[in-house]
Automatic annotation (TrEMBL):
Signal peptide: none annotated. The keyword Cytoplasm applies. The gene is cutC. Belongs to the CutC family. InterPro entries: CutC-like, CutC-like_dom_sf. Keywords: Cytoplasm. It is found in: Cytoplasm. GO terms for molecular function: copper ion binding. The lineage of its organism: Bacteria, Bacillati, Bacillota, Bacilli, Lactobacillales. GO terms for cellular component: cytoplasm. It comes from the Bacteria. It holds the Pfam family CutC. This is PF03932 family protein CutC.
Length: 217
């Protein structure tokens, strides 16, 4: 099983690698759900991921809150994407959802264009898309080359053990070639059970592997 961890600093990344993580999603401000990290941290993470031979995904998100970004914010995200490409990043993650709870196709297209040739993951903004529109969104994302979708299967306030039913539906809806990456409340203690219930081979969480306390890192 591929274990992806969400983290925000290099010290934690080193500890996660020692404890068997397979892929890192690098953020800043995990307390806000993850924002775009600074260039220095990204550069260090790119080097460490190459040294450890693991994959690195970098978050592109300009602020906390909803995912209905203004045109100015989209331009900021496009600039971030260009910087990440220059720093050697191979995979990025972002998401945009409009005020009507639909996939914001025009704005996502602008970001996809700016991201080339990096690979793209659509992050947990997916859970803000109305359920009736999610299958169509998955098909569109797959058609436009997105490789994975990170999803909790519902609101993050609901434990993932209670969103399993909808996660199963999302896994079934996903077109061939689009990986569904369950996350949000996945830990090293429940990962095996979740993988079995969902028939998935990849999981995401900030506690997907055991980590020492911050003071001991």
């Amino acid at each position: 099983m591929i274990k992806e961890i969400a983290l925000a600093d290099i010290v934690t990344m080193r500890a996660a690698i020692r404890n068997g993580v397979d892929r890192v999603e690098l953020n800043s401000r995990l307390d806000l759900g993850g924002l775009t990290p600074d260039d220095q941290t990204v550069a260090e993470a790119v080097a460490l991921a190459a040294e450890a031979q693991i994959d690195l995904v970098v978050m592109i998100r300009p602020r906390g809150g909803d995912f209905d970004y203004s045109e100015a914010e989209i331009e900021d995200m496009r600039r971030s994407l260009r910087r990440m490409r220059a720093l050697g990043v191979k995979t990025v993650t972002f998401g945009v959802v409009d005020v009507n709870k639909h996939l914001a196709r025009d704005r996502v297209t602008k970001l996809l264009e700016a991201a080339k040739p990096m690979q793209v993951v659509y992050h947990m903004a997916f859970d803000d898309i109305a359920e009736r529109c999610q299958q169509q969104a998955l098909r569109w994302l797959a058609n436009y080359g997105v490789i994975r979708v990170l999803t909790h299967g519902g609101k993050l306030t609901v434990p993932i053990t209670e969103t399993v039913s909808h996660l199963q539906e999302i896994v079934q809806m996903a077109p061939t070639g689009l990986t569904i990456l369950p996350g949000g409340g996945v830990t090293f203690e429940n990962a095996g059970w979740l993988a079995q219930q969902l028939h998935v081979s990849e999981l995401h969480g900030s506690k997907i592997v055991p980590l020492p306390l911050k003071d001991a890192l």
